[in-house]
Amino acid sequence: MNKTAPHPIKTLLASSVVLLLAACGGDYSDPSSAMDVVRTAGGEVRAVDRLGMRSYFAIPFAAPPVGERRWTAPVPPQPWTTTLAATRSAAPCLQTSASPFRLSGDSEDCLYLDVHAPTGLGPFPVMVNLHGGAFNTGGTSVYADPSPLVTKGVIVVNVAYRLGAMGFLAHPSLATDGTAGNYGIMDQQAALKWVQDNIVQFAGDKNNVTVFGESAGGFSVMTHLASPGSRGLFSKAMIQSGNYGNDRQLSAAQMAAASGAIVDTAINAARTAGVGGIACAPGAVTAACLRSLPDAVIRTHLANAISTALPIMVPSVDGKVLTKSVKATFAAGENIKVPTVNGANEDEYALYIAINEAGRRAAATPPNFDPANTSFALPAAGYAPTIAGLTAGTGLNVNDVINNFYPLSNYGSNPATQPSLAASSLATDLGFSCPALRTSQRIAAQGSPVWMYEFRDQTALPTVGVANGSYYLSFPQGAAHSYDLQYLYNLGDLRNDERRQLQAAMTRYWTNFAKTGNPNSGGEVPANWPALTTTSSAVLGLDVASGGGVKVLTSFDADHKCSTAWSRLVTF
Questions:
Q1: d(Cα 343, Cα 553) in Å, to the nearest integer?
Q2: Cβ atoms within 10 Å, residue 553
Q3: Is 29 exposed, middle or buried (0-12, 13-18, 19+ CB in 10 A)?
Q4: Other C-beta atoms within 10 Å of 68: how many?
Q5: Can you tell me the distance from the alpha carbon of 357 to that of 548, in angstroms, rounded to the nearest whole number?
Q6: Run of H or E residues at 287
Q7: Strand-pair category, 340-345 with 236-240
C-alpha cells in the first residue's frame, strides 16, 4: 500500500480550522473536500492519502460490544482526545464456521468503519458498503481499495458488524422489551446513523446515501428495506446476490428455541473439553452468564454450535429490527421504497460446488491438486441427493425437476463434470436468479424504479480452487458467487484489458446510480440499461467483450426457468 505523509503545514492549518469551528458550536459551512484531519462527533481522524483517495481507517462508530455490552444494542463510542491515525482497517468481528473466507486477527472489539473519499471538490454522493460472508465471516479489510468507485466521485464507507452468535443469537435471557437478536443489523443501522451525523465533515452528502452490499451484505440491504428503524437513513439501495434469504427467516419463537439449544450445546461441549469459568448450566442460562462466558467458549464452542444449527444464517423476525419477515413486509407494501439496483451472477452456486470439491481434495492423503483427476468431483449419484438437501421440506419432486429441466445431458459431453455444472445451474436458478427476478418485479409493481443485472463473465478470476497460481478443480466456475466483487474493488490484478474494461463499465453504472438514482446518468456507459417494469423484464448482462459484452437480455426468466421449474417455489 502506497502511503504519502501529510504535509505538516497543511495538516496544522486544517486541524486549526476544524478545532476553531468546532469551538464555535459546530455551526459552520460544509467542507468542500475531505481534509487531512476531520473532526467527527467522537473526535479527530487523520487521512492516509493513497490510490487517488483519502482513506480514514478504523473509525469507531459504536462502543466495543464486550463484557456487559455483549448482545446489547450498539451505543455511541466514548469520545477520544488524540487524533486517530490508523493506516489500515480495524480487526474484523469474530469469524464463525469453517468457511475458506475466514479472516484472521478477529476480535469482539470490532465496531469500526472506514471512509474512503475522493480528493476533489464535493459534496460527494455516499455509498455505504455492507460486507458479505454469510453473516459469519468477512470484514472491512477485504474492501480496503475501492478506488475504482471512489475515483469516479463518490465516498465509499465500509462497515463492520457483529457476526455469527455475537450478532444474531436470540437467547430468551437476552430479551429486552420482549425482543432479542439481530445485533448485527442494529450495528449496521448505527453505522448508517453515524454517516448521517458525520459524513458532511468528509465532504459527503448525507441526503444522497446509497446502501449496497453483496451476498449477506445484499440480504442486509433487503433487511434495511424491510426494517422500520432504517427509514430515512438512505435514499437508494443496491442488492448484489442478496435475495437468497427472502423466505428463510425464523420467527422470534423459532429463533429463541434454536438459540437456547445452541447455547446449551456449546456449554456442554465446553465442559466436556475441560473449559472452566462457566457460571451456569444448560437449561439455566442467564444473560449475565452469557456475557461472562470465557473467550474459548465464545470462539470455539458457541461458534461451532450456531454454524451447525443454522448453516444458512439470516436475520430473524425479532419484533424490533424486523416486525415481519422481509417477504411479508414487501408483500404488504410496507417496505421502504427507494430507487433500487438488484442482480445476481450467472453461476452463483458454482462457488459452493467448488468449495466442496476443494475440501475433498485437501482432505485426501496426500492432498490432490491435479485437475485431470476428476474422482473428487461431484459424482452423478450425488446430483439428486445434493438437490434434495437444498430443497428439503418444500415438497419438490427432485427427480421430476431434474429429468424435465436439468438433465445431465444438457451440461456438456464430459460425464465427470456434468453433475457439478448441472447442480450449479439448478441451485443458482432456485436460490439466486429467480428470487432476484421476483424481488425486482415486486419493487417495480410498487412503483419504485428498479434496474436488474446479471453478472456473466465466464473468465472471472476464481478465488477457490487456485494453488500456486494454477487452477486445480475439475470444472470451471464461471461467474460464480462473489466473483463480481473484483470488478468494483481492486482485489488483485485483473490480468487483461477486457476485464479492466468491464470493471470500468460496472463502476460507472454503480457510481452513476449513486450520484443520480439512474445508472445511465452521470457518466458515459457502454449500453443503455433499461429499468425493469411491470411490462418489461429487461436485464442488463455484464460481460467481457469476448463473452458478448455489456448488453440487454430479454430471456432471463426463460433462461433460469423461473416461470416453469420454479413457478411454485419462488414467489415474492
A1: 13
A2: 18
A3: exposed
A4: 11
A5: 29
A6: helix 287-291
A7: parallel
Question: For 533, phi and psi rounded to 5 degrees?
Answer: -130, 180
- State phi, psi for 529 to the nearest 5 degrees: -105, 100
* Nearest alpha carbon to residue 315 among 183, 466, 143, 150: 183
Nine cell digits for residue 253: 419463537
Nearest one of 308, 268, 284, 6 to 165, comparing CA atoms: 308
State how far the Cα of 456 lies from the Cα of 552, in Å rounded to an integer: 12
Q: Please classify residue 289 by burial: count the beta carbons closer than 10 Å to its beta carbon, then call 0-12 exposed, 13-18 middle and 19+ buried.
A: middle
Residue type, 137: T
C-alpha to C-alpha distance for 252 and 244, rounded to whole angstroms = 20
> 3-class SS at 376?
helix
Task: Give, for all 572 residues of the chain, the pLDDT tens digit.
Answer: 333 333 333 333 333 333 333 333 343 458 999 999 999 999 999 999 999 999 999 999 999 999 999 999 999 999 999 999 999 999 999 998 778 889 999 999 999 999 999 999 999 999 999 999 999 999 999 999 999 999 999 999 999 999 999 999 999 999 998 999 999 999 999 999 999 999 999 999 999 999 999 999 999 999 999 999 999 999 999 999 999 999 899 999 999 999 999 999 999 999 999 999 999 999 999 999 999 999 999 999 999 999 999 999 999 999 999 999 999 999 999 999 999 999 999 999 999 999 999 999 999 999 999 999 999 999 999 999 999 999 999 999 999 999 999 999 999 999 999 999 999 999 999 999 999 999 999 999 999 999 999 999 999 999 999 999 999 999 999 999 999 999 999 999 999 999 999 999 999 999 999 999 999 999 999 999 999 999 999 999 999 999 999 999 999 999 999 999 999 999 98
User: What does the block give as the cell for 515?
Assistant: 450520484
Q: Which candidate, 516, 537, 534, 536, places its Cα nearest to that of 525?
A: 516
- The rounded distance, in Å, linking the Cα atoms of 218 and 443 is 15
Amino acid (1-letter code) at residue 363: A
| Residues sharing a CB contact under 8 Å with residue 76, sequence separation 6 or more, in sequence order | 41, 42, 62, 63
List the one residue out of 70, 72, 16, 62 whose CA is nearest residue 41.
62
What would you measure as the largest C-alpha separation in the chain, in angstroms? 74
Judged on CB neighbours under 10 Å (0-12, 13-18, 19+), 53 is buried
With cell 469476448, the residue in question is 546
- Alpha carbons within 13 angstroms on the beta-carbon side of residue 258 total 22
Amino acid at 73: A
